[in-house]
Amino acid sequence: MERIVRQTMLFDFYGELLTEHQRSAYEDVVMNDLSYAELARLQNISRQAAYDMIRRCDRQLEEYEAKLHLVERFLSIREELQKIEETAKVLQERTTDNTSKSYVEDILKRSGAILEEL
Fold this sequence. Notes:
Blueprint: H1 2-14, H2 20-31, H3 36-43, H4 47-68, H5 70-94, H6 98-117
Helix pairs in contact: 1-2, 1-4, 2-4, 3-4, 5-6
């Protein structure tokens, strides 16, 4: 399952860098859960050619990530935002003064909005 999540994230970040043909095939296999045989039938190619195409796409997407680190940065930012949100919730529970509570609520609102957008 973790492999599929990684493939999906790589595709979300770098899919536009693949050719239209590659993008379509990769999306069919990874996102729509088509088998290599089904892809081969749709594309009128051999099963082995379908398998090779998806492996090449995987390699390409991994190479883009190795150079650009966009997925890695995204995951790191999301994790840090979640920590900020957790800290703010603890602070909200412990704060009694209304001015401080409104600042904490603002932090929660803003961090929540950012997490939603990610």
